[in-house]
Amino acid sequence: MSEEFDYVVVGGGSAGCVLAARLSEDGQARVALIEAGGRDRHPYIHIPAGYARILGHKRLTWGYRTEPDPGTADRALDYPRGRVWGGSSSINGLGHVRGHPSDYDLWAQKGCTGWDWDSLLPYFQRHEAYAGGGEGRGMAGPQPVEPLADRPPLMDHLAEAARAVGLPVQRDMNGPVREGFSEFQQTRRGRRRISAARAYLHPALGRPNLAVIDQALALRVVIEEGRATGIAIRRGGVESVVRARREVILAAGAIGSPQLLMLSGLGPGEALQGLGIPVLRDMPGIGANLQDHYIVRLGYRLAAHRWSANRRIAGWRLPLEAIRWAVAGTGVLTWSPGMFSIFARTAPGLEAPDVQINGGPVSWAEAPGEGRWPGLAIGVPEAEPGMTIGVWQCRPESRGTVTLASPDPAVAPRIAPRYLATEGDRACVLRGMRLARRWLATPPLAGIVLGESRPGPAAESDADLLDFARATGGTVYHPCGTVRMGGDPTAPLDAALRLRGVAGLRVVDASVFPDIPVCNINATVLSVAERGAELIRGET
Predict the structure, then answer these.
(1) Which of 249, 292, 263 is nearest to 16 (CA)?
(2) pLDDT along the chain (540 residues), means of 10
(3) I need a labelling partner for 9 at 20 to 30 A (CA). Which of 348, 356, 416, 534 fits?
């Protein structure tokens, strides 16, 4: 038994929520949104600082792990992706950051016509409602974007320290100039996180032409005579087909979209045959080109608790912060992991920043375990005041893969990011770590920052720092590129996001990026989905 719609969208994350809302807004087209998770009712979703408690939640995330790799000291890393209305926008760090204009111009140079910065800027403006206003910003879109509700007292000192190492200070991190120090902006309204589900999907739920089919695992794309005609799903133990008269649109993310295509016989032919999956089209580009930002977290000891949030979120003081959040909409519970950011060029001849440094005045206790460099127990503050600084390379050269581990759709795919696989990536991360050290050792922070606690001053050589990076680093939760668009025939998608060789099938999510942008990627995903909706409706 099946039900028929005009459009069937798979994945209720950032892109899927945009598509469901935009494609159904004319009141005419019937739209189905299929989501594996359930409604976004968990209270920690809506408290900005709640991210620290739900990144590993068994019901709200997919529970992915990466393959062990030499680049990460043979560790398998947690790889959180949202499995709930709003997807990863319901569990992320709330950062709203545009890429560098050259990111999107490079996309266009690779044959992605219409995806240059000037063409994509209107879609950034369309989705955002930025409370601060300013040049090039959107102020009337569905997605609220606000400056920090609780500004740490350390912020001005950090800004002056950035000036001391030759970096400018920007009023708007998403303004015309991106390089330098700036304060984060959050996908928040008042005290609450506003995910893509809250911004786009919830306001559209009353439309009779929109159906949300959640708690439904997508099994495969149904392809008949070269055309995608629906999605096979399993819901409550029952399998059925949700049919599409016009198009099937995959918005399952950089992991889910290539997995679903491969389960449908679209992907690297030899690998699919090895799993007993009939090959409809041999497309080696599906699941290739995985890109992500790799973060290395440095720890710093601060002189007093007034500079750090550690004591504010421990013991009997945490309920006070909960009251402050509920009554006034301020306090540490409005914080996100990135409260401030530096974008910097650390090598000559670069057109855009190659290093991003994020952080906040809170530090985490070391996790128990063996090895030279202990990990961190994210969510468990240190007893002493501290700060955490995350360093990552903006445009990594390394490329990984997403491949099937099984023909069973319920089995997670193999995720191999291949972090730090090139000499260029390793050198860039080292430059970023040393820049962070110079920044935090400047006179404006004297008497406030007492010294580095992780990895500590004993780690001085490149070999020591690289060892620390491999042993303790992890994902910044920005996977993309696994079903890339491009002008060359090896790109699975054309510039209109259509899958080559299969009619009625598009992909609209982070997997379509040819290259990772110089930013936290959620704002770019929203913009890609806004433009994707227009392409689907034939308006561009």
Answers:
(1) 249
(2) 87 98 97 98 96 92 96 95 98 97 98 98 98 92 97 96 98 94 97 98 98 98 98 97 98 98 98 98 98 97 97 93 95 94 97 97 85 83 96 98 98 98 98 98 98 95 97 96 96 98 98 97 98 90
(3) 416
* DSSP codes, 419-452: TT-SHHHHHHHHHHHHHHHHHHTSGGGTTTEEEE
Angle value at C-alpha 520, between 421 and 248, nearest 5 degrees = 95
CA neighbor of 196 nearest in space, from 35, 27, 379: 35
Q: Give the whole-angstrom CA distance, residue 333 versus residue 41.
A: 18
DSSP 198: I
Backbone angles phi, psi at 101, to 5 degrees: -50, -35
d(CA 93, CA 520): 10
Q: Read off the tokens for 109.
A: 């140079």
- CA distance linking residue 104 with residue 101, whole number of Å: 6
Q: Which two tokens stand for residue 2?
A: 């099946």
CATH fourth-level superfamily of 2-537? FAD/NAD(P)-binding domain (3.50.50.60)
- What are the residue ranges spanned by the domains of the chain? 2-537
pTM given for the model: 0.97
- Give, in order, the Cα–Cα distances in Å from 407 to each of 79, 142, 229, 259, 337: 21, 38, 21, 10, 37
3-state helix, strand, coil in the chain (%, to 5): 30, 25, 45
pLDDT value at residue 1 = 43
pLDDT at 370: 65
143, two tokens:
């997605």
H or E, element range at 32: strand 31-34
Which residues are annotated as catalytic?
A: 478
Cα–Cα distance for residue pair 279/265, rounded to 1 Å? 4
The helix or strand, by DSSP H or E, that contains position 118, with its residue range, turns out to be helix 117-127
Integer CA distances (angstroms), 254 to 152, 180, 367, 477, in order: 34, 29, 29, 11
Contact 266, 505 (CB under 8 A): no
Distance CA 148, CA 332 (A): 11
Sign of CA dihedral 178, 331, 376, 300: positive
What is the CB-side half-sphere exposure of residue 228 using CA atoms within 13 A?
33
The three-state secondary structure class of 317 is helix
**b/e sequence 265-278, b meaning 16+ C-beta within 10 Å:** bbbbbebbeeeebe
Residues in contact with 216: Cβ distance below 8 Å, sequence separation at least 6, in sequence order: 34, 35, 36, 233, 234, 235
Pick the closest to residue 214 from 14, 39, 20, 7 (CA basis).
Answer: 39
> Alpha-carbon distance 310 to 387, whole Å?
9
